[in-house]
Automatic annotation (TrEMBL):
NCBIfam families: HMP-P_kinase, PRK14713.1, thiE. Condenses 4-methyl-5-(beta-hydroxyethyl)thiazole monophosphate (THZ-P) and 2-methyl-4-amino-5-hydroxymethyl pyrimidine pyrophosphate (HMP-PP) to form thiamine monophosphate (TMP). Residues 513-708 form the Thiaminase-2/PQQC domain. Mg(2+) binds at residues 69, 93. It comes from Microbacterium luteolum. The gene is thiE. Binds 1 Mg(2+) ion per subunit. The keyword Nucleotide-binding applies. Residues 227-473 form the Pyridoxamine kinase/Phosphomethylpyrimidine kinase domain. This is Thiamine-phosphate synthase. Pathway: Cofactor biosynthesis; thiamine diphosphate biosynthesis; 4-amino-2-methyl-5-diphosphomethylpyrimidine from 5-amino-1-(5-phospho-D-ribosyl)imidazole: step 3/3; Cofactor biosynthesis; thiamine diphosphate biosynthesis; thiamine phosphate from 4-amino-2-methyl-5-diphosphomethylpyrimidine and 4-methyl-5-(2-phosphoethyl)-thiazole: step 1/1. The lineage of its organism: Bacteria, Bacillati, Actinomycetota, Actinomycetes, Micrococcales. Its EC number is 2.5.1.3. Residues 7-195 form the Thiamine phosphate synthase/TenI domain. 4-amino-2-methyl-5-(diphosphooxymethyl)pyrimidine binds at residues 37-41, 68, 112, 144.
Length: 716
């Protein structure tokens, strides 16, 4: 069985204390526990059976129930009508093969494993015998004093990587381990003391669940009809799920022929195909929430109910599509009766006023009476009800969240938005709610967030200009406005694009008379020394710019790199320049005695303006061409691309040309490219654009710098 293992409670009667195991489990399941394992080493088999019966009633289908070790107790509890979903076995307990045979193919069977030998034994079992492994302990724990040596996070990571089955981390697991264990490959967290001993198990479980889902897109299944015009049904659901941060899937209950002006026809596929769709999704994908919309008839509803009984997703939001805009009832009496059974599987029901009237069995007279009817419905079926006031007369369109079993009521005020683009608002809101609840938001927070998103999408709907009738809302209006449509490149893509972007500059450098003459040895000494003198002036201030990059860097690695590059510029490189310019004096005032050429001044002015503007990313983009263009040129000079003489030791500038292909400088260039490309890939489009402009301007200055020596000293 493809069970949701994300939050797995293992009971401990001593830690539950006076509150007791049953009440602890009830509260923890309210908070989001997905699977409960009854573990009570001191209890007799008869006592375990009684506890399983009690826990089955307390859980009431909201989570899976398994028992530790006691296979015979699980069978006996089933015979008494308890819903026991499976067993968790240790290496020395009842055979997993016997457990699978006794409990059937849909049972959940877990097995303790923590060593290579255990993993080998699992691999030897027939496929489908075991569903998941309980792997640990992660840390030493008092709840299991006879535990094996602790694996730690990294030990768990190695085990999970080698396992063909989902691995649940167990043993000393606390809430601050959530992210690390999920990143290490855990399919879920098995928690004992952190929930059993908690003052408020519901709140603590909700915290675990929120942290488990943080940063991940929840997986939301919509079970609804299709709207080919895209405004309602599964099309609206999938857009809503995506707009609210989820990954959407769809099982189609009915095909409609409709547009913004109305429905022209409905085709209901056979329910065996509906069943096949549902099983295809849930057999493979762990669902974080299900949204249910249009269910055309009683047989369709029964099929969905039966599937929910088996899969039991953690969140079920039901949008009861029962009444057409015209006021006509869409379901016959038999289907309405089946729908009432479905209500008891829902966590949240989202009726409009007409649907609330059908479900409550009376027509509310006003908004306070609608709230009273919602209270009655919530108390009857045990689910929260979001009653929607969009069909009320007047300038206000309030909603209210009613949770009668827990004595909660919260109203949400809102001025009516005047628009014709209301097609699919019910579908869209319920899907948004399913997504936000699956992310771990509590119900009031989810409703507030979903309403804010829906109201924004309503306001922008007319801009879509879709259809002549009741148009759709604009599901992605906020994302388009605030997030834009630009893709985020990888560092490798940035590197390739930027290099291609300066291809014309690179070609122009290759074709300069200075470069050609330097390569073939015909360059006169005077322009060569002019180039070196200007380069010495450049390097002195370039080192200051690199030092500023080191000061602004956010990581020690980058800080050290740019600082070392600054040091190399004023020590290693300037010494090479002095060997030509002032060989008898070394590096000194005479090395920098030349008058700056216009190209040198312009280049340094550009670097200084970027450096002392305080933007680290733009700065490192501006200094990159001095690394990249020189390394590329040196590599190709020594490869003979500009003629074989450039590689000849008898070349008049052989010692200088050797510096162009220095291996250490090539490695430094590779690191500089990586730092800049990584920063550009992570930057927002506007900043990435500024970085590219700084890079391009510096590349153009490199071209001018190479051209300058022969502008006043032509080749003879």
């Amino acid at each position: 069985m493809n069970a949701d293992l994300s939050l797995y409670l293992v009971t401990d009667p001593a830690l539950c204390g006076a509150r007791g195991v049953v009440e602890t489990v009830r509260q923890a399941v309210d908070g989001g526990v997905r699977i409960v394992q009854l573990r009570d080493k001191a209890a007799t088999d008869a006592e375990i059976v009684d506890q399983l019966v009690d826990l089955s009633h307390a859980i009431d289908g909201r989570a899976l129930l398994v028992v530790n070790d006691r296979l015979d107790a699980a069978i006996a509890a089933r015979e008494r009508g308890a819903r026991v979903d499976g067993v968790h076995l240790g290496q020395g307990d009842a055979s997993v093969l016997r457990a699978r045979e006794a409990l059937g193919p849909d049972a959940v069977i877990g097995l303790t494993a923590n060593s290579p030998a255990h993993l080998e034994a699992v691999l030897a079992l027939p496929p489908g015998t075991v569903d998941h492994l309980g792997v640990g302990v992660i840390r030493p724990t008092l709840t299991k004093p006879d535990h094996p040596p602790a694996l730690g996070i990294e030990g768990f990571r190695a085990f999970a990587a080698a396992s063909p089955l989902p691995c649940v981390a167990i043993g000393g697991v606390g809430i601050d381990d959530t992210e690390a264990l999920r990143e290490a490959g855990a399919a879920g967290l098995a928690v004992v003391s952190a929930l059993c001993a908690a003052d408020d198990p519901r709140r603590e479980a909700a915290q675990f669940r929120r942290r488990w889902h943080a940063g991940a897109a929840p997986r939301i299944l919509s079970i609804a009809g299709s709207d080919p015009s895209g405004g309602a049904g599964i099309q609206a659901d999938l857009k809503s799920i995506a707009a609210n941060g989820g990954y959407g899937m769809a099982v189609i209950t009915a095909l409609t022929a409709q547009n913004t002006e109305g429905v022209r026809g409905v085709h209901v596929p056979p329910t065996d195909f509906l069943q096949a769709q549902l099983e295809a999704v849930s057999d493979d994908i762990t669902l974080d929430a299900v949204k249910i919309g249009m269910l055309a008839d009683a047989e369709v509803i029964r099929t969905v109910v039966a599937w929910l009984d088996v899969v039991r997703p953690p969140v079920v939001v039901l949008d009861p599509v029962m009444v057409a805009t015209s006021g006509d009832r869409l379901l016959d009496p038999e289907a309405e009766g089946e729908l009432r059974r479905l209500l008891r599987h829902a966590d949240l029901i989202t009726p409009n006023l007409a649907e609330l009237a059908v479900l409550a069995g009376r027509v509310p007279t006003d908004w306070p009476d609608a709230l009273a009817a919602a209270e009655e419905l919530s108390a009857d079926v045990g689910a929260m009800v979001l009653v929607k006031g969009g069909h009320l007369p007047g300038d206000e369109a309030p909603d209210a969240l009613i949770d009668a079993p827990r004595g909660r009521r919260q109203e949400f005020a809102g001025a009516r938005i005047t628009t014709r683009n209301t097609h699919g608002t019910g579908c869209s809101l319920s899907s948004a709610l399913a997504t936000r609840l699956a992310k771990g938001e509590d119900a009031p927070t989810a409703v507030a967030g979903a309403r804010a998103w829906l109201r924004e999408s309503l306001r922008e709907g007319e801009a879509l200009r879709v259809g002549r009738g009741q148009g759709p809302i604009s599901h992605f209006a906020g994302l388009w406005a605030r997030g834009g449509l630009d893709t985020r490149p990888t560092a490798a893509v940035v590197e390739a694009d930027w290099w291609r972007q300066i291809s014309a500059t690179r070609t122009a450098i290759d074709e300069l008379p200075f470069i050609r003459a330097l390569a073939d040895g015909t360059l006169a000494r005077e322009p060569f020394l002019f180039y070196l003198a200007q380069d010495a002036l450049y390097l002195r201030d370039y080192a200051r710019v690199l030092a500023e990059a080191a000061r602004l860097a956010s990581t020690s690695e980058e800080q050290a790199f740019w600082a070392n590059s600054a040091h190399g510029s004023i020590v290693g490189e300037l010494e090479l320049h002095a060997a030509w310019l002032t060989p008898s004096q070394g590096v000194g005032a005479a090395t920098f005695s030349a008058r700056p050429a216009p190209a040198t001044t312009a280049y340094l002015d550009h670097l200084r303006s970027v450096a002392f503007g305080g933007d680290y990313e733009e700065l490192i983009a501006a200094v990159l061409p001095c690394f990249w263009l020189y390394t590329d040129l040196g590599r190709r000079l020594h490869a003979g691309e500009f003629g074989a003489y450039a590689r000849d030791p008898r070349h008049p500038y052989a010692s200088w040309l050797a510096t162009y292909a220095d291996a250490a400088f090539e490695e430094a260039t590779r690191r500089a490219i990586e730092f800049v490309a990584t920063a550009a890939a992570a930057a927002e489009p506007e900043k990435r654009g500024r970085m590219l402009r700084a890079f391009e301007v510096s590349s153009a200055h490199e071209l001018a710098f190479f051209a300058a020596p022969l502008e006043g000293h032509p080749v003879v």
